[in-house]
Amino acid sequence: MLQSSQRPSPRKLNGKDPFEDEARFLKSWLERPLVTGAVTPSGRMLARTMASYVDPRVPGPVIELGPGTGPVTDALVRRGIAQDRLVLVEYNPEFCKLLKRRFPKATIIQGDAYDLGETLRESVAEKAAATVSSLPLFTKPMDVRLQLLKAAQEAMHLNAPFVQFTYAVVPPIPAKSKHYTASPSNRVWLNLPPARVWVYRRHA
Ligand SMILES: C[S@@+](CC[C@H](N)C(=O)[O-])C[C@H]1O[C@@H](n2cnc3c(N)ncnc32)[C@H](O)[C@@H]1O
User: Fold this and answer.
1) How close is the Cα of 7 to the center of ligand 1, in Å?
2) What does DSSP say about strands 180-184 and 130-133: parallel, antiparallel, or unpaired?
3) CA 137, chain centre distance (Å)
């Protein structure tokens, strides 16, 4: 999440205008701050760190929750995940339209990620390879976060990663559990604000 003035690259990145995405994001945050959860899209380093936990060789769809304007989606494609394996669950209809233009082969679901079983019911038949989430989990009570993790893990292969970023110093879902393991990335200092990625995997 580098500030515009700090970006080393030219105005257009891969045909996309980062300033336009920032404006879209800010508008969404002003309209629905608790749903949008951040004032700017994630930076490339954070997006790349999230995508690095997804193994492109593991079969099945890759589910992304809260893709927004698509920076993490872009990193997943660069990581080698074919677009047609991506299932993007986004609440904001304007972001969904943008995602459809940017990732025409992906499955885009305008829906509620916290009602995951129902939201995925008609689109995902196969066990997923990974779930990558940018949802602002701290706006939800802990039982809702735990329910989300459980639903995502039921939709995936055993031991597949549930990848979640946070700006907070504490994990968004408790790290200690008898049901899963949780491991943190190093802090991504190049993101503004600096962020950390947590990866949760279900026990056998
Ligand atoms: C912090 S933003 C992250 C956006 C993008 N992945 C990024 O890294 O820049 C959170 C995103 O989650 C979406 N979102 C929030 N609640 C949601 C829900 N219940 N279901 C689906 N998407 C949701 C918001 O609309 C927003 O696009």
Assistant:
1) 23
2) unpaired
3) 11
Choose which residue among 2, 13, 90 to substitute to test ligand 1 binding: the one with the highest number of ligand atoms within 8 A of its C-beta. Answer: 90
Measuring CA to CA, how many Å separate 139 from each of 59, 121, 136, 170, 174?
32, 25, 6, 14, 15
* Residue 197, number of CB atoms within 10 A of its CB: 22
pTM: 0.91
Is 131 a pocket residue for ligand 1 (Cβ < 6 Å)?
Answer: no
Question: What are the two backbone dihedrals, phi and then psi, of residue 24, each rounded to the nearest 5 degrees?
Answer: -60, -45
Residues 74/83, Cβ–Cβ less than 8 Å: no
State in Å: Cα 159 to ligand 1 middle: 24
CA of 90 to the centre of ligand 1 (A): 6
Q: Buried b / exposed e across 31-57, counting CB within 10 Å, b at 16+?
A: eeeeebbbebbbbbbbbbbbbebbeee
124-180: per-residue pLDDT in tens? Answer: 999 999 999 999 999 999 999 999 999 999 999 999 999 999 999 999 999 999 999
